[in-house]
Amino acid sequence: MITKTWMTASFVLMSLALPAFAAPTTSHYAIDPAASTVGWEGSKKIVDSKHFGTVTVKSGTIDAQGEQITSGTIEIDMTTIVNKDLEDATYNQKLVTHLKSEDFFDVTKFPTSKFVIKKAKAQKGKGGATHELTGDLTIKSETHPIIVPATLALKDGTWTGKAQITIDRTKWNLRYGSDKFFKSLGDKVISDEIKLDLNLTAKAS
Question: Phi and psi for 29 in degrees, rounded to 5?
């Protein structure tokens, strides 16, 4: 009985002596649309022809524990597609209208695209990338997982992030001009690759 009591008392004392470890605190950051940009580039497959421009970040959030991002969401306003390479106003507007139409992004029905960050790990990569982001990209009605090399930094309560992404647009039901689905297109074949250039800023909220 004495031995049992002594063991119980010892266990209690040891428990009190152990340091209390608090659960990691999660900090929340809001993406600043005015300080963030998304560039896009598309090209034809056979002839040397490409178009590029921008689209506006609508909103977003980043959650982090210290310098470790745990989750995040980035929403893109697809109604804000802008072309930067065509100087002729008529041709410029024609291209933008086509990109917004049902042939491509169908922005009336799908006004936003979204990238949901599910995991971020420190990993050096090409172009000075410091991290690898894993998440789901939603365009129109399609959602697919992607892995994104990114350069991330936290300074004075502000996250900055840069990433270049190349996706196969046909996975997101963007099939117009693709020789995977249409034949006899000649030099009108449009590359299945779309390049995205993200520069994001998120501030503590």
Answer: -130, 140
95 with 87: CB under 8 angstroms? Answer: no
pTM of the model: 0.86
C-alpha pair distances (Å), 72 with each of 143, 170, 204: 16, 25, 13
Question: What is the amino acid identity at position 63?
Answer: D
pLDDT in tens, 156-185: 999 999 999 999 999 999 999 999 999 989
Among 196, 192, 195, 197, which residue's Cα sits nearest to residue 46? Answer: 192
| Other beta carbons less than 10 A from residue 42's beta carbon | 21
State how far the Cα of 196 lies from the Cα of 193, in Å rounded to an integer: 10
Distance CA 162, CA 127 (A): 10
65: CB partners within 8 A, 6+ apart: 24, 25, 26, 27
Tens of pLDDT, residue by residue over 7-59, are: 444 444 444 444 555 567 999 999 999 999 999 999 998 888 999 999 999 99
- Gyration radius of the chain over CA positions: 24
